[in-house]
Sequence to fold (274 residues):
Amino acid sequence: MLAVIIDPTNQYTMRTKLYGHLLVTLLLLTIRVAQAQENDTTRIRTTTAKIQREKEREERISVLTYTRIISDAHGHYRFDENIVPNFRLNNWLRLEAGIRYGQRTQKFNSFYHYKLELQTKWLWKTVRVLTRISDNVIRYPSPAYRKTNELAAIEGKFIPLHSLQLIGGLGYLVSARQNNNTEALPTRKGDHSNYGIFKVAARYLLPKGFLETSFGSYDTFNPYEPDKPFLQEGFEYELSKRCTTYDYFRYEYNKSIFTPYNYFLSFGLKIRLL
Fold:
């Protein structure tokens, strides 16, 4: 009968080598997995950026159309319909036009607005500049008047987190109001008021849209008076590659946030034509 004698020292050495091999294998596997994840992340970011560039490049002409229901603090209602086309002029500039037609419960054809706006592209995907002239023609209530607004603003957007986008804007407004005149052409006659304008917003990005909370004194059409800014909750959702919803609720207050001035409810669509 044979007896096999195992040296304890050799047994310890074999276990040490085995553990060493296992440790090295685990370390190499971890490195490979990390590299694969990094490559996947880079590929996803590259693909997303490419899709975004193609989307921006393809969007030569788009149209925003929406309807608003507005109630003031006294319970008086008015309604308006808006069409805002946007055109790409070249790789650096876009032109946005807009027309608004409004009604009040007391008078059907009570007001209309129009605007022309020149926008730069988003430089470094972070900053853009816009200039705008808009004209308001108010036929009811009295006194009837026309008001011309000229503004310029610089806007920035930042993405501190994967699903969070911060947007801000600062600018200046020059305005002229001429009472008892409802001509459609812009004016620099009458009462003048010049002041700064601003906008800040936080946008939570969704797979096919976003939720946005904003606070400011200017938006798509007319700027707001400095003591009557607004708070807004907005929502956009992509129904298809060419159609996106455009909805918001806006609260405009008078000097104090607890003193309501106007409530706005808007429903609309953004349509990409070319």
